[in-house]
Specification:
CATH architecture of the largest domain: 2-Layer Sandwich
Strand content: 15-25%
CATH superfamily of the largest domain: STAS domain
Number of strands: 8
Order of helices and strands: HEHEHEHEEHEHEHEH
CATH class of the largest domain: Alpha Beta
Number of helices: 8
CATH topology of the largest domain: Transcription Regulator spoIIAA
Number of domains: 2
Strand order of the largest sheet: 4-5-6-7-8
Helix content: 40-55%
Radius of gyration: 18 Å
Oligomer: single chain
Structural class: alpha/beta
Length: 248
């Protein structure tokens, strides 16, 4: 899915099916073949929310492809819409029948406002050894920096292994008042816990604020405009001799 027109085409298929059924239904969808590119991400999330209204009782998604799951999860986060993503069909069916466990690291729906939710969502792919993150945080003070990093401390501590990191930064804002402090603290706290990292996002303001923090702190930038390119960068890192990583 590369743009709004692709999102419209997919949602039209669902709309036609809902019209044939003629009543609200439960929906379980497999998303292994769905990759939502950055230009379509927020638009697709909003279209899903609009489409579900009055037509869907409960819904769940599932798939083994961590990149596909993360692209859909990011879209849901941008649109303040529930993700409800599971690893297997059985878990997804259990979700819509009311007997599911909570899906790991699923972003919670927001209130629809523009403010950041002050949280970080994670999903770990053990086969690729990649930790996917979605940063939804407004950083204006040194206390915000430490609160943000606490999410990473807990998650990396729970893994008990050094992963690669891919983070979506569309929801991350770093104030110029603390950008150098942010960069330095991220380097100190997280750098030694990663094999490599890449960040991505379609939001130019977010990319620039994180890029500025990286430049002031003197560490790698590694910011891309899409999840696909971030994944490609991590795969290139894996093919090179291991080196210390300093994420921002």
């Amino acid at each position: 899915m590369n743009g709004p027109e692709d999102a419209d085409a997919l949602c039209l298929l669902y709309q036609r099916q809902f019209e044939r059924i003629g009543r609200p239904v439960h929906v379980v969808s497999k998303i292994d073949g769905l990759l939502v590119a950055a230009p379509a991400s927020e638009y697709y999330g909003n279209k899903c929310r609009e489409l579900a209204r009055g037509r869907v009782l409960q819904f769940a998604r599932y798939g083994e492809n961590s990149v596909a799951r993360m692209s859909v999860r990011t879209s849901a986060l941008k649109a303040r819409f529930e993700a409800n993503i599971f690893n297997s069909r059985e878990e997804a069916v259990a979700a819509v029948t009311g007997s599911a466990r909570t899906p790991p690291a699923a972003p919670e729906p927001g209130d629809g406002g523009a403010a950041a939710a002050q949280k970080v969502s994670f999903e770990y792919d053990p086969l690729r050894n990649i930790l996917f993150a979605v940063d939804d945080f407004e950083i204006s003070t040194e206390q915000d920096v430490e609160a943000f990093l606490e999410h990473y401390r807990r998650q990396l501590g729970a893994l008990k292994t050094k992963p690669y990191l891919i983070a979506c930064i569309d929801g991350l804002r770093v104030s110029s008042k603390v950008d150098e402090y942010y960069g330095r603290r991220v380097k100190e706290v997280v750098g030694s816990s990663l094999l490599g990292f890449a960040r991505y996002g379609s939001n130019a303001v977010s990319r620039m604020s994180v890029r500025t923090a990286a430049l002031k702190s003197g560490f790698e930038i590694n910011i891309f405009d899409s999840l696909k390119r971030a994944v490609e960068e991590i795969e290139r890192m894996k093919s090179r001799p291991p080196a210390a990583a300093d994420p921002g």
